[in-house]
Fold this protein.
Amino acid sequence: MDIEWQNGSAAQPTYWLTRFMILRLLGIVYAIAFFVAINEIIPLIGTDGLLPVEISLKVISHALGSDTASFMRFPSIFWLWHSDAALLTVAWIGFILSLVVAAGYANAIALAVLWFLYMSFVHVGQDWYGYGGKFNSQKQVFSPSFFARCSTCVHFQNMLLLFPLLFCFAGSSFASCSVQD
């Protein structure tokens, strides 16, 4: 916490260092996640992959009755376009945008786009992206988007949103964050 002094009294804390570190580290985490997707998504869920995404989307759509109902239950950009080119394009866009965030150009829109792009992979990734830790960590990385509002308006209440993230990463793996029956 950085406190600025004005006229002999302490001004409101700015938390600029906390914001600086969390947003850049979040950009690095996203960059690693999208880099892994670039290298592994086609063999896993591509057209000729182990569990093709097209088959999965058809099964989900049939079970829920329509593509619209399926999108509402499992939001993903891949309901619109799900070829190998789409998988790689989304992974590359996410990787480049995460590098921009890691470089310090973070805002709530960029973080929301990163969150949605990666959630798109989580929702169609089946066995590869469907275990509890991946899904729970995706819910928790949405919290830091509140840090991107402006450079001086990070409030203590928003920092409290990060406590579940702290406990999650303190475990030996992401799986330690999942709720299992």
